[in-house]
Amino acid sequence: MVKLSYKLPVFEGPLDLLLHLIAKHKLNINDIPIAQLLDQYMEHIEAMQQADLDVASEFMEMAARLVYIKTASLLPRPEESEQLKRELTGQLLEYQAVQEAAAQLGEKARQSGGFDLAERPALELPIDQTYRRQHSPGVLREHYLLAAGRGKRKVPPPAEAFSGIVSRKIVSVSSRVVFVLRRLWGGKRMPMDDLIGASRSRSEMVATFLAILELIRSKRIAVEESGENMVLKADGDGRWK
């Protein structure tokens, strides 16, 4: 009796074999029935062993992985099983995408006569502007205040900010000269601190001091030292002789 023999397809790894079984039996790759897939996988491993093919350790490792996922799914809380299934599905989808890309590159190489030249038109990639980072409320508040502060610095200052400069009354030195002479008219004597202290604003104070200096320079008033105070005096017509 002639023994029938057949050639098994060669797979590059356990993921390649799983994708073959999923496609062959039309299984849903996004919701893999682990029990059914495990049975088909073990049947193929046994067929490889019967055909005297060396089964790599990575195929046996995948078999153990499928058995563990099936066992975890039988527990009262199958959350771990679902997590393991999602990880396996992700690996299968990535491997499937790599296979499709390799097939496209192989087709282009066949058309161009080799891998020396490969080209493709430029693709317009969509820009994903979704912000996915997470921040604590304190960090958000801090950066909001910094941003708000930068915005305020770019805004022109309000008119009130200049009120102390542009709206302040300008006091001339000549007006304070008249003020000092009137206080010292007729030979009166007055402490310099009293003259300067009678000023209602800083501008008047500075103008009064400059007026006193100008009157001293022009010798219209004189300065005498009386203890710790400086006393100013003038003659009857406002000119010191």
From TrEMBL:
The UniProt record lists the keyword Signal: no
Keyword Transmembrane found: no
Ranges in a coiled coil: none
InterPro entries named among the record's database cross-references: ScpA
Transmembrane segments: none
Single GO biological process annotation from the record: chromosome segregation
UniProt keyword annotations, A-Z: Chromosome partition
Protein name, UniProt field: Segregation and condensation protein A
Species of origin: Solibaculum mannosilyticum
Designated gene of the protein: scpA
